[in-house]
């Protein structure tokens, strides 16, 4: 399974929704809180092509985007394929 990284903040409802979706699938992930580690926000923005909102989700080296993007992959049956690569 590909490693999953989520850049998030504790007060973000979309971040919690993304983590719930991944947890429901039994997917483990590394979470980076950009509020607690502000230097990681710059890292996130570089990896996410300038996107500055959270969550920003990465599966392996693939930038998925935010929660809506993750949920769309799940609805389209593509999330499991991306996780398996």
From TrEMBL:
GO BP field: cell redox homeostasis; cellular response to oxidative stress
Superkingdom, taxonomy of origin: Bacteria
Protein name per Swiss-Prot or TrEMBL: Glutaredoxin
Record's keyword annotation contains Cell inner membrane: no
InterPro entries in alphabetical order: Glutaredoxin, Glutaredoxin_subgr, Glutathione_S-Trfase_N, GRX_bact, Thioredoxin-like_sf
The GST N-terminal domain, residue ranges: 2-85
NCBIfam families: GRX_bact
Organism listed in the record: Aliiroseovarius sediminilitoris
Pfam families: Glutaredoxin
Entry's family note: Belongs to the glutaredoxin family.
GO MF: glutathione disulfide oxidoreductase activity
Keywords assigned: Cytoplasm, Electron transport, Redox-active center, Transport
Keyword Cytoplasm belongs to the record: yes
GO terms under cellular component: cytoplasm
Function: Has a glutathione-disulfide oxidoreductase activity in the presence of NADPH and glutathione reductase. Reduces low molecular weight disulfides and proteins.
């Amino acid at each position: 399974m590909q490693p999953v990284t989520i850049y998030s903040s504790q007060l973000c409802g979309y971040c919690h929704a993304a983590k719930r979706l991944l947890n429901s699938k039994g997917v483990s992930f590394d979470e980076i809180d950009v509020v607690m580690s502000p230097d990681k926000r710059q890292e996130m923005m570089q990896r996410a092509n300038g996107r500055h909102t959270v969550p920003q989700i990465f599966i392996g080296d693939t930038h998925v985007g935010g929660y809506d993007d993750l949920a769309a992959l799940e609805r389209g049956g593509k999330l499991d394929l991306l996780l398996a690569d």
